[in-house]
Amino acid sequence: MADPAQLERLVTLRMPFGKYQGRTVAELPGAYLAWFARQGFPKGELGRLLALMHEIDQAGLRRLLNPLRRHF
Hints:
56% helix
């Protein structure tokens, strides 16, 4: 199970670069997350969060982040 703090970071951390710069990690399209999964996730916190979001997306669980979005 994911750490609640990590789930909060998914809805607050904004992409610092790329096509989707400025969007939160939770807002990134599944195809973009899949691209990172194929190419390799960045190192550090951003990479860990992108990998987590990819897992959530692949499992069809994005809707579970909706309550967190309302708080932030």
